[in-house]
Amino acid sequence: MKKILILLTAIFIYSCNTNNPKSNSQTSSENAKGAKKENFVSSDTLTKHLKPFNEDLPTIGLLMYNGVLQTEVTATSDVFSKPNGPEGEQLFNVITIAETESPITTEEGLKLVPDYTFENCPKLTALFVPSAYDMYSQVHNQKIVDFIKEKDKETEYTVSNCAGAQLIGASGIEAGKKIVTYIGGGEQLQKEYPDLLVQDDAEVSYVEDGKYSSSNGNLTSYISALNLLEKMTSANHRKFVESYLYLDRLQDWK
User: CB–CB of 161/131 below 8 Å?
Assistant: First the structure.
């Protein structure tokens, strides 16, 4: 009789444990959490995409300020951040620079966090100066103008896109040099900065004069970036980047 009671008790305990929804739920929940954690770790690709600053590489500096036309920042980044062919070798440091560490808001509404400020910006190989629809604040911001002046002393190349030409004019670094601005803006640029050799923006999309180059801006910012990329690398690498960006599809698009 005792043996029967013991057996029945064991069966009852086993039945309670296997049919306890709370116990099963907890186990399932713990397993799900474990799987979720495992999936999160395996799908975290941030480290993979970070490009550490390499002092041995040329550094491309992208100036930013509130109201900047974002294409004139992203176009250059698009072009110079591409790897050296299928090997995936990094060729440049591509950094953003602003007056302070605070995020800037583009004309189109994106918020971008600068990598460096005017105070801690590393030595630049090339500086790209973008534009905004309203350049008054930038042209009258002496800190921006002085930054361009100082960085131009060390750069091998200085590039302006669109109304960024006004900042170039304010800095005085391209006196006697050819420059182009946005379509329709050349006449005013020439009046304000008579030392510049302003080109006909109705006919000219891009111009180069020594270490300086400029474009009409917006999507033509890709022209200034690609032309400089070819000069700093090779025609083959330019073709690789153009194919990487599917630019041939845009050129043939109707």
Answer: yes
Domain membership flag for residue 23: no
Amino acid code (one letter) for 95: I
Domain span including residue 76: 58-172+220-251
Q: How many domains does the chain fold into?
A: 1
> Side chain identity at 74, as an amino acid letter?
T
- Is pTM, for the whole model, over 0.85? no
pLDDT bucket at 65, cuts 50 / 70 / 90: very high
Domain annotation covers residue 191: no
C-alpha span between 240 and 84 (Å, rounded): 9
Q: Measure the CA–CA gap between 230 and 9, rounded to whole angstroms.
A: 84
- Report yes or no: 237 and 230 within 8 Å, Cβ to Cβ: yes
CATH code, domain carrying 141: 3.40.50.880
| Sign of torsion over alpha carbons 182, 187, 193, 197 | positive
